[in-house]
Design a protein that fits this description.
mainly alpha, 11 helices, globular, two-stranded antiparallel sheet
Length: 246
């Protein structure tokens, strides 16, 4: 059984590896700024919010690179007031121009519903929405859960904590309590942690990207009929894994 101190060590090793790019090159793809914006300004916060709204199940490096290319070519697509009143068919065509939107109808609908929610509840300003709740992460999460009709995308179980953490981390907003917000794991993520002796179906927002990178780039290399994972030689937590040694 994995002991409590092992649990802490696994977390520290994963986070350190992720932050240094040692998880098979995975890094925080949301960190680089789009051209022409400053970290934490209104344009940047809207950019982060809208891209997080369509980020579920997407490969981060491709999505965020496509989002920055889209922003450079068509910044109007990231203006909540424009989005709120745009024609859906026009949005769909423009969102796919640089392969940012993959599911044309569902992604463009999510994009527009998110812009409409920002206009309805905060005059189109992400920062104003945060200020309305005193930059309190838990209060914002509660608001999202209580207003699913207004925020159908941002209130998602995975999306909500990831978005709030992203606004604090990538968007440099003074949000409190977001580091420890729980983010549910997909079955593959739960299985990856189980192989490390950890029984968990959710992790903190701080750890989520590292666990996702481990799962996607490392654990998926293992075949069920083999005793050792081929990713083990490069895996920072292989010594804790049931498939990490021969």
């Amino acid at each position: 059984m994995t002991m409590k101190n092992d649990h802490q060590q696994i977390g520290e090793l994963l986070l350190a590896a992720y932050e240094s790019g040692a998880l098979w090159g995975a890094s925080n793809a949301a960190w680089p700024l789009p051209a022409g914006v400053e970290r934490g300004d209104e344009a940047h916060l809207a950019f982060l919010t809208l891209v997080y709204a369509i980020s579920g199940g997407r490969e981060p490096a491709q999505l965020w690179a496509a989002a920055r290319a889209t922003f450079a070519a068509d910044p109007e697509l990231f203006a909540p007031h424009f989005i709120a009143y745009a024609k859906g068919r026009e949005l769909a065509g423009r969102l796919t121009a640089h392969k940012m939107a993959r599911k044309t109808v569902s992604d463009s609908t999510a994009w527009q519903r998110t812009g409409q929610a920002l206009v309805m509840r905060a005059g189109g300003s992400v920062r104003q929405l945060l200020e309305n709740f005193g930059f309190d992460g838990a209060a914002l999460l509660d608001m999202l859960q209580a207003n699913k009709a207004t925020f159908p995308i941002l209130s998602g179980e995975q999306t909500a904590p990831r978005w709030l953490y992203g606004l604090a981390h990538e968007g440099a907003q003074p949000l409190t309590g977001v580091d420890r917000l729980p983010v549910p794991l997909a079955p593959a993520g739960t299985a990856a942690l189980a192989n490390l002796g950890l029984n968990a179906d959710a992790v903190s927002a701080t750890a989520f990207n590292a666990v996702a990178a481990l799962t996607h780039h490392g654990c998926r290399q293992h075949r069920p009929d083999t005793p050792t994972c081929p990713a083990a030689p490069e895996c920072p937590v292989a010594s804790f894994c049931r498939y990490g040694t021969i």
